[in-house]
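ok so I'm stuck.
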Amino acid sequence: MHVVMTAAGLGRVEDGAVAVLDTPYPDAGTLIEQTGSLESLAAAQVVRRVPLTEDGVLPPLPRPRALWGVGLNYRCKAETTGRPLPDEPILYLAAPSSLGAPGSPVRVPPGRTAELDYEAEIAVVLGRPLYRAAASEAWDAVAAVTAANDLTARDVMRATAAPVLAKSFPGFTALGASLLGRDEIADSAAIGVRAWVNGEPRQDATSAAMIFPIPELLARVSWYAALRPGDVVLTGTPAGTGQDLGVFLTPGDTVRVEVDGVLPLTNRISA
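replied:
not stuck anymore, here's the structure
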């Protein structure tokens, strides 16, 4: 199931258009929290069809329960930065108020950062509770995946050593523009993720390059915290960030993130 949120309501992406559905759920986040998946939309009646455009898509998860992230989860990123592979995931939480919408501008926090960086990531949305789980059972708890731009103020990170502060400015956790149901994904270790800045390719990798594959990452998070339906886990970013290239975002830049099977996530940086 490939799902988007529009002003007309929840819809399925079908043949390049949106089939708006008759459903009691106001958004995909509520649907996942209450049913554990996107599958109930398969039988929903189509109310009407509307064109599929980037500017007509709303946040699919307007009220995420929790935003988990992991640092240094791609081998190529570790090699580029010269850091050893971690023995345990480097975990953090971002404030839910940092949620950014697809297509919306992201404002540079005035006076707080001169090193705003993009991070293209695969985001997974939990559909079932997960606590002290084994990696072999973690993937079945996923409801959907989407694209994320996990923006980071690198200088704030250095100054505070607190990822939550460097990543929690408004709009810094952009998610969308659509959700792809887990059943549509043949292999959790073969999901592509890419980023462009102003049309220039910057990042290109697949989940096969992760240090902690998605099921193992979810299981390890669950060893420390009980994950709940609607929680979002960002799974790390590959090499090619501004930190790696020594070039950071400035007002007027546009970042485009793609995850296989999901509509592109585009955001413009504003002053």
